Amino acid sequence: MANPGYGKRDAPDQRPRTNHDFAHLPPREAAVAAYIDRLPSGADVSVKTLAKHLPYGQCALRTALNNLQRAGHLRRGREHLTGTGSQLWITRTWFTRTARDDDWWATFTRGDVPKESPERQGRPIRSRAFILLAALGRSTPALSLPEADCASLAPLVAEWFERGADEDSVRHALTAGLPTPVHHPAALIRRRLTTKMPPEPTAVRPPLRMLECAKCRVPGRAEVLAGGVCGECRGEYAPAHRDAPLPAPAIHARAAEIRAAMAHKRQERTLA
């Protein structure tokens, strides 16, 4: 795990995990993405640490991470958590198995969670809640559900997710301390989902976020970081011209001129 503030953060509203999430990527990038995807929140995803666990060197991993950023699976940036009473910005690395375009990341940095339409998802998929319910019977046969019951109960599970619960907490709430035998799995699950529902989260001001260029690491607005790279690094425009500093002799000469002028004015006031 990384130091607080420097680990992986999962982007919101990802599609359910499948065996083909990274099939569109080259083999190396797909392997790195699959590894990061399965790491818990807060895990260290620095190049140095990844090189200890993956069969790639740091240079290859740095290139792979930049390619994942270009493909929309990763962004690096900084975040200021509201309510901390500090002006400190902490480093973040956001990852998503669902590739996002530049507009999505720009909306995300403004504190919104953009929603994908079914058309943009490209294929009809079952919801995260439905998949959790359908998979219950694999680990707990007493809670095997038909498709109709999964569809009926999915909105309750979705509400748990909206209130901040993850898959593990929902699964534990449904499977812990089961009676023997379970006569009506759907009724038991509905009762537990209803009576154990987490409280609604309190309204919290979204954190301030900014992304940074994958190459030069300079922070910038998400709208100008196409593919996670700034325009200067993409070669679209030259860096702003900066005047060269004056040499030391010129500075000393100018200072002497200013002192002489000030002395002359003081002498004029004395004579007056």
Which bin fits the share of residues in helices?
Answer: 40-55%
Outline the biggest β-sheet: 5 strands, mixed
Order of helices and strands: EHHHEEHHHHHHEEHH
Number of strands: 5
Class from secondary-structure proportions:
alpha+beta
Total number of helical segments? 11
How far is the N terminus from the C terminus?
76 Å
Q: If you had to describe this structure to a student in words, what would you say it looks like?
A:
It is a single chain. This protein is an alpha+beta fold and 272 residues long. It has 2 domains: 1-112 and 206-272, no CATH class; 122-205, no CATH class. The chain contains 11 helices and 5 strands. It has helices spanning 27-37, 47-53, 58-70, 102-109, 118-121, 128-139, 147-162, 167-175, 185-195, 231-234, 248-271; strands at 8-10, 74-80, 90-95, 208-212, 219-220. The chain has a 5-stranded mixed beta sheet. α1 (27-37) crosses α3 (58-70), α2 crosses α3 (58-70) and α7 runs parallel beside α9.
Write the layout of secondary structure elements.
Elements: E1 8-10, H1 27-37, H2 47-53, H3 58-70, E2 74-80, E3 90-95, H4 102-109, H5 118-121, H6 128-139, H7 147-162, H8 167-175, H9 185-195, E4 208-212, E5 219-220, H10 231-234, H11 248-271
Parallel strand pairs: 1-3
Antiparallel strand pairs: 2-3, 2-4, 4-5
